[in-house]
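INFO batch 0412 | record 1 of 1 | parsing
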Amino acid sequence: MARCSDAFNTGRVGYGAPVLALLLIAVVAAPPRALPEAELVAFSPRLERFAEGLPFFDAAGTRVALLRPQSWREFTHPLLQFDPTSRDSMKAVGVDPTGGLTVSRRGDLEVACVSLSDPKAYESACETKLKSVGVVTRKTIEGAVVVSARDQLNRVLLAYAIKGKISCAATNHGLTLERVLPELAKLVSAAKPPSEPGFKAAAELPGVISIIRPSGSPSGAMSVSSKGLTTTLDAQLNGLASSLLPKSGPSPFGSASPAGLAVLRVRLSKSGLSDSLEAFLRRMPGGAQLQAPVEALAPLMTGNVLIFVHRVEVAKGGLGTAEARARALKLAILVETTDGAAARASLDALLEKQQASPKPGPKLGVSGPLAYVYNDESALNAALAAVPSSVSKQTHALELVVDPALLARGLSQVSLLDAIQNPALAGLLAAGTELGPLLVASESLTGWADPTGSGAHRAQLTWSLKADRFP
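INFO prediction complete | emitting tokens
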């Protein structure tokens, strides 16, 4: 399973089902109660709104077991099990459906804070869990009541603090909570919301679901909103370096959308495009022969790029070598130039050499004002044919369109033997196995990204399912 923390590159072990559960229920609208220096936070100020995402996840769960609501509903609280889709279930344990839930993680420590409708019912439900662990004790710390359970080794394994109609409960996954008890008392008494950059980013997002990385590089938040069979992920991230141009503008590829696995329209700075192409060619077997010509073209590049992946076609020998992996991805990259004639003149010697003595690997060419790199002629022809005759406005610095069915077909070609020979392919094999059935039943995957200044970026990904597959 992909780890939620991976999106922020924390480098820590994934938090598993509890974080996935909160990814599906967090709603950004009110200040959370989070641990100081928390690494990851999930926040829902109004639990009853959780049902807004159920049509999508109920449907997706018929194809991917991990997305079935019943598989993660119970992972919302260290002490209690309740169904956040059911008001009656929440009220039965004293949790307020109109109130909030915040779960924050710091190392192995997990703390969940909830609003209460019935503190007595809540304490009674917690007492049952605590007694199953060991001896229950109560004490008052900074005006809050702190209740904990000690096991036979005198470790505080579970605890909660309560003050008024706010409670925060904790588990340290087998480690003692002794030193954490004062923190729980402070959390339920806190009057000010957290001020880290990640929380500020979350406040700017439109979605009803949020996962937050409060600080660090990058920091930020991702929020998810659902309507029917469509779910949209919005992200606001800080501390990311990129070469994307800071605003929309004219591009010959603004409306180009050739039919294939994926289309990526990008507006880059000239230096960023040159560096990206050189890095791409260094990784491509046989690409070194094109690095000098690309450098010669650099002054003529505008920064407008179309990357087109036509299909994935794995040869009989599999993906065991770098050459085989490069050949499997049938693609073409089109780059706008300021002067097609000058571009062709600078490449004349190379083009003649390519025709006289073709070598394996990517090839370079020019068509009108467009220079191109490709490794498959059908991909190149489809990309060139899709470019309109007139320039149009590209709305975002980066725009992505993916055909879910073709993506599923491509992932299905990664074999177990390939994954064993090359561990880097194991993730693709897992993605094909887990997500393949859902991708086949999906209508579209689209996304965009824009820099917003000083290393900040705003991005969005929208996933729509086919209505006729989910009656």
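INFO post-check: The chain is about 30% helix and 30% strand.
INFO record closed
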